[in-house]
Amino acid sequence: MKRRERNELYFEEIGDDFEALMSDYDVAQRGRLVLELFPEKVAGKTLEVGCGTGAITEHYVDRVEELVLTDISERLAVETAERFDVEGGAEDALNLSFPDGCFDMVVSSECVEHTPDPAMAVAEMMRVLKPGGHLVLTTPNRLWFGVVLVAQRLRIRKFQGEERFLSIRQLRRAVEENGGQLLRHTGCHLLPWQIPFIKPLLRRMDQYGDHLYHVMINQAVFAVKQATSDTGAQS
Q1: Torsion of CA 185, 191, 194, 198, to 10 degrees
Q2: pLDDT over 70 (residue 7)
Q3: Domain positions in the chain
Q4: Can you give the pTM of this predicted structure?
Q5: How far apart are CA 52 and CA 59, in angstroms?
Q6: What does the alpha-carbon distance between residue 116 and residue 120 come to, in Å, rounded to a whole number?
Q7: Calpha distance 64→105 (Å, rounded)
Q8: Which of 35, 74, 33, 78 is nearest to 217 (CA)?
Q9: Cβ neighbours of residue 235 under 8 Å, at least 6 residues apart?
């Protein structure tokens, strides 16, 4: 348990270096992708799981009526919620404290891969969604996991926290087996953005995310929670 807590609180432990270690290019592209998947306006309550410093939050916050920000780090959740003047607090993505079906929208960007069980984290997000509610989620593609491990060991990649990537199929299954209907599966980053002079090409390739997401570094889904049928339910 101690090892799990240390890994999951890695982003709090690096403190003020958190923002410095993030790639502005990566954040901008993921923010663009989240906004592209987002409805024009969301009535009711929206939950963000793994808000961090709010780098993705700021892309969509004007589109939601009521927002709750959460993170495994209480400090990050509270500070970010205060900055946006919304409700916020610490939550474990694998065991959200909210009751079933209480949110109209759930957003999560680059969070589930930092948990011991990414598929369970997706299941929890689907659980707290109302029938008819929507999920917008981004996470790395398992296809690139080996490259990331090498980059970490060579200290090319600065983040050294928990890393468990879902494959394209595993993410689809996690959504669909928990009552979700996938409306769109897309992605960004055809190649590592750290490669010098490659960003103009990557921006052009991101336009084809709906076709190339199978081989892209980051995948993103937009899903709706389907209404459950009571037929055959036991009393």
Answers
A1: -110
A2: no
A3: 2-223
A4: 0.88
A5: 14
A6: 9
A7: 9
A8: 33
A9: none
Report yes or no: 174 and 123 within 8 Å, Cβ to Cβ. Answer: yes
Query: Per-residue confidence at 66, pLDDT binned at 50, 70, 90?
Result: very high
Q: Which of 181, 140, 184 is nearest to 37 (CA)?
A: 184
> Distance between CA atoms of 12 and 53, rounded to whole angstroms?
10
Could you give the residue ranges of the DSSP H alpha helices within the chain?
A: 2-8, 10-13, 17-21, 24-37, 57-60, 74-84, 118-127, 145-153, 168-176, 199-206, 209-212
Angle at which helix 199-206 crosses helix 24-37, to 10 degrees, equals 10
Radius of gyration of the chain (CA): 17
Could you list the beta-strand ranges (E) of 82-229: 87-90, 103-109, 129-140, 180-188, 218-225
Name residue, tokens 């995948």: 219
Quick one: how far is CA 61 from the chain centroid?
Answer: 15
Express each pLDDT in 164-223 by its tens digit: 999 999 999 999 999 999 999 999 999 988 888 999 999 999 999 999 999 999 999 999
Structure confidence at residue 148 (pLDDT): 81
Q: Which helix (H) or strand (E) holds 69?
A: strand 64-71
Q: CA torsion sign, 13 to 18 to 21 to 25?
A: positive
Environment class of 129 (CB within 10 Å of its CB; exposed 0-12, middle 13-18, buried 19+): buried
Q: How many CB atoms within 10 Å of residue 228?
A: 10
Determine the topology of domain 2-223 in CATH: Rossmann fold (3.40.50)
Instruction: Provide the token pair at 14.
Output: 């690096």
The alpha carbon of residue 21 and the mean position of all alpha carbons in its chain are separated, in whole angstroms, by 18
Angle formed at CA 182 by CA 176 and CA 187, multiple of 5 degrees: 120
First to last CA, the chain: 38
